[in-house]
Amino acid sequence: MSEDAWALGERILLRTATTGDARLAKDVLQRAHFVAHVCNDMHALVRELPRGVGAIMLAEEVIGEMATSELASALALQPPWSDIPVLVLARRGADSRAITNAMDEFANVTVIERPMRVAALVTALRAALRARHRQYELRSLLDGLRDADQRKTEFLATLAHELRNPLAPLSTALSLLARKKPSPAEAGKYYELMTRQVDHMVRLVNDLMEVSRITRGKIDLQLGQVLLDSVIDEAVELSRPLFERGGHALVLDLPSEPLVVRGDAVRLTQVFSNLLNNAAKYSPQPGKVSVVARHEAQHAVVRIIDTGTGIAPDMLRSIFDMFVQVSGTAKAAQGGLGIGLTLVKSLVELHGGTVEATSDGPGRGAVFTVRLPLARLIHSAARPMSRGVLETEIDGTVLVVDDNHDAADSLVELLASLGATPIVAYSGEEALQIANEKKPALALLDIGMPGMDGCELARRLRAEPWSSALQLIALTGWGQQGLRERIASAGFDHHLLKPLNLPEFIRLVRLDRPVRDREAAANIINTPAP
Predict the structure, then answer these.
(1) Boundaries of domain holding 439
(2) Which of 253, 354, 422, 436 gives a 20 to 30 Å CA spacing to 406?
(3) Would the pTM count as exceeding 0.85?
(4) 279 contacts 344 by C-beta, under 8 angstroms
(5) Which ranges in 216-295 belong to alpha helices (H)?
(6) Do 251 and 329 reside in the same domain of the chain?
(7) Are 191 and 231 part of one and the same domain?
């Protein structure tokens, strides 16, 4: 509520018997710091109601049947949250017909007998205004719930649309494979299509799970010293397909002296990748996106500047809110749920930083600025070393345990194609027997199995004397914090969400870079300033 609107909402509307009474009452109220407005007749008072009112104060003498009816009719039109207090200043003595009518007609009426002490009047008015303030708070709450409900409705419609999009080509490709029985070479294009669509659906579901966990604070950051330019490089690589598809130019302007922040490298990469994706999706083809990083005071400041569709001034504050999308940009977004900026804001704030959006308006691009507390500046020209080549083969025996036969069998085939020797079990009991016979080096266990679930199986495997070298990975469709804690306490080394993210799985099994590279990178981080 603006200052002017607030002042109008605080007003005491006065209708007294005489002009002299009006002047006296207004003077008394103003000395008590009330905002008083004198109305010459009941018509004038009723006309003032829509402009804003804190309470109404009436003299008994001005309450006739017609006047009472007119005011009661106006008050009946109040919105559900509003119940304007009415104070009636009654003459001494027995209740009059006017007072009786007022008490019958007005829902929220207080009768004060004259003459009265000024302190009693002030106390009554302050109580009335406190009640009115609570009504304003209720209005704000209802408006917020209404807006949130509207945004949620729009979000669910978007979600349904975005899930249908990949389902359509998936269904078509499956029908074609079943009807045409194509050769392996010809079938390859259908498999690629299906892989792309499944990946898209996985991203949608992961975004939903991420935003739920992060906004509820159910996430633990793996904090350490992080080279921010390395994080930005990783984010650029993740976003590169969108830039190439749109033909956008990407300009990096990073300082020669690396910036170091204390944070979670994976989560910070997610922040900048989301912002880069956002810039690419909302930029006309071809567009230009610049990433500028600087050391400002005690912060590392990264600005992502695009030439895209821009943001209306009234959307700048709410653009990071849950379920909010800038109107008219759904087509430009090229798919997505519109929750990426909510993730960005939550993750940045978990790192003790801030993020803000600025824009000169629709069609004039936007700037997203991320500020993160600076750990310290490394005085070394060395840059992070390359990550090395991702291993694509897995040696040794791998046990796959899942009560879903299709899921287990397909994963066994995938592992076999990577060079592993996979064995399969469809229950915890069967897995325990096979494991004691084969003694695998790695086991992927489904958690939600009937009978002996994955956590119980993991505990039993860890109790075996031969299992000290066994690597246990949990596979589950659920990512809640409580389940993660249960999985960790059962003795698992890692927890992966279904469907299996192959590069992530391979990095866990065969680290994504040699030990010597990790040690070199650690030395860079820990290099003392000269």
Answers:
(1) 397-512
(2) 436
(3) no
(4) no
(5) 228-246, 265-281
(6) yes
(7) no
